[in-house]
Write a structure and sequence with these properties.
Blueprint: H1 3-26, E1 33-38, H2 44-49, H3 53-67, H4 70-79, E2 81-82, E3 88-92, E4 95-100, E5 109-110, E6 113-118, E7 121-124, H5 127-136, E8 146-147, H6 152-155, H7 158-167, H8 176-182, E9 186-187, E10 190-192, H9 193-199, E11 212-217, E12 225-231, H10 235-249, E13 252-255, E14 262-265, H11 269-282, E15 291-295, E16 299-305, H12 326-334, H13 344-354, E17 361-364, E18 368-374, H14 383-403, H15 409-420, H16 426-433, H17 437-449, E19 453-456, E20 463-466
Parallel strand pairs: 11-15
Antiparallel strand pairs: 1-4, 2-5, 3-4, 5-6, 6-7, 8-10, 9-10, 11-12, 13-14, 15-16, 16-18, 17-18, 19-20
Length: 470
């Protein structure tokens, strides 16, 4: 065989090997890599059998790297990725240095196919795996998808819309669709999924998984169902109805303190409401399962589909917030249904503390998030006894924290009074402090600016929440 034919044969063999090596290398786009290809080592066998081996090695390296444009072919391989990224090549004697940077716009595909790294290997993703990957990474957002099946004339819930405007403190307008567009609830004339959650007449018509299922069991397991209800309306109605179901099935006690009697639930209302809202706001709406509220003899469970958001660890709970449904979370904040990001779990723990009950138990896995509240033994201690014991404990801890904020004695007294009687009127408060109502108002404004108190509800029917006391 002539030298030229040998060179041609060697080139095609090693060109194919080189391209295959690079294809495998470029699939590793999760970390930056530098690959050193020593081309001459592949010629050891040929050098042993060819009398002109040294010339062949030199010619082949030069041939592949220069004249036949393998360097440009390597660059073209990188350009075949979608999205494209740049690699750098460096030639050092017989060594070709291929620098593959870490991908910043994952995921990447080659020839319309996606791959995932499993240890040292790259495996092609199936259709379902591709969909799951995009959903998990937050690259496809359920709440932002538009829905062409929603008919405004037949499916729009005007009452739910007006409730939203009232809670969000938005002035009613004649052009309903323009307002929805301004709130990012419509796109290209179609309502988004999150808009259907808020303003549909029946959510099960569009998303059966978005209902809330409440079940009352006998005893401490699921062997016997005593009662169940599924709520399938708009978001706010489902939330409100789910809480009312809890309110009807849990024990209550009337407490009298020298005035009108007050009905108290065996578990803190704030904690239960927070758990339901947390489930609605953070659940995975791609999951076919619905939110489940289970009432047992010894506990209440609120279970929502979807584990922790990608990038969040169990230790982050109560410290940071990473909403899975950012648009929905923002709208619920606007409606004053949820407060500062990352504070819900802390508030639930504090609320249970006021009832002298263990903090809620949180269980998380890949597919579910559950929060469990232990029910009290009312034979051992009544609700009133628990609240009075928790109040004394809260006041003691609250006074210590408040004193660190350089508050006046009168401001400390106001906090103490509001903790004991959240529904006290401004005039009554002024009488107890022996100061005029305008002075009380100034103190209240100062405490609100410091974040120590917040007014909940209407002027007449509302109450004061003392944040540092829980």
């Amino acid at each position: 065989m002539s030298q030229s034919k040998v060179l041609t044969l060697i080139f095609f063999v090693f060109r194919k090997c080189l391209i295959r090596l690079l294809q495998l290398l470029l699939l590793v786009n999760t970390i930056g890599l530098i690959c050193l290809l020593n081309l001459s080592k592949y010629f050891l066998t040929i050098r042993d059998i060819l009398p002109w081996r040294n010339q062949v090695v030199g010619l082949m390296v030069q041939l592949i790297l220069t004249f036949l444009g393998v360097k440009s072919q390597i660059t073209d391989l990188a350009r075949n990725f979608d999205p494209k990224f740049q690699i750098t090549l460096e030639e050092v004697e017989n060594v070709l240095v291929v620098n593959v940077p870490e991908g910043t716009n994952k995921p990447y595909s080659v020839g319309g196919k996606f791959y995932l790294r499993y240890g040292p290997n790259s495996q092609q993703l199936s259709r379902d795996e591709i969909r799951e990957f995009f959903q998990k990474e937050g690259l496809v957002l359920w709440e932002e998808k538009t829905n062409k099946d929603f008919n405004f004339d037949n499916d729009f819930n005007q009452q739910a819309f007006e409730k939203f405007l009232k809670l969000a403190n938005i002035s009613p307008v004649a052009d309903k669709e323009k307002l929805l567009q301004n709130q990012a609830l419509m796109k290209d004339g179609l309502i988004r999924n999150v808009g259907i959650l808020l303003f549909c007449k029946e959510i099960a018509k569009f998303f059966p998984n978005a209902s809330i299922m409440c079940v009352l069991f006998r005893g401490t397991d699921k062997a016997k169902i005593l009662d169940s209800r599924e709520f399938r309306e708009d978001l706010y109605s489902n939330y409100d109805n789910a809480f009312e179901y809890l309110n009807a099935k849990l024990n209550t006690e009337y407490i009298i303190k020298g005035g009108p009697r007050e009905e108290k639930l065996e578990l803190p209302e704030d904690a239960l409401r927070e758990a339901i809202l947390n489930a609605i706001a953070h659940r995975d709406y791609f999951s076919p399962s619905n939110i489940q509220i289970n009432i047992f003899k010894d506990r209440v469970e609120v279970v929502s589909p979807g584990g922790l958001v990608s990038g969040m660890a169990y230790s982050d709970l109560g410290k940071i917030s990473m909403p899975r449904n950012i648009l929905l979370f923002g709208l619920m904040q606007r409606m004053d249904l949820i407060e500062k990001a990352g504070t819900g779990i802390i508030r639930m723990k504090k609320a249970m503390e006021t009832y002298l009950l263990p903090e809620p138990k949180i269980d998380v896995n890949k597919n579910w998030f559950s929060i469990t509240f232990q029910r009290p033994d009312l034979q051992e201690m009544t609700i009133q006894e628990r609240l009075e014991g928790g109040l004394k404990s809260g006041l003691k801890g609250g006074l210590k924290r408040w004193s660190e904020k350089n508050l006046s004695e009168r401001q400390l007294k106001i906090l103490e009074i509001l903790t004991e009687n959240p529904k006290i009127s401004k005039n009554k408060l002024a009488q107890e402090l022996s100061i005029n109502p305008s002075a009380v108002q100034k103190h209240l404004e100062t405490l609100k600016k410091l974040g120590l108190i917040k007014r909940e509800g209407s002027v007449r029917g509302g109450y004061w929440r003392v944040k540092e006391s829980f």
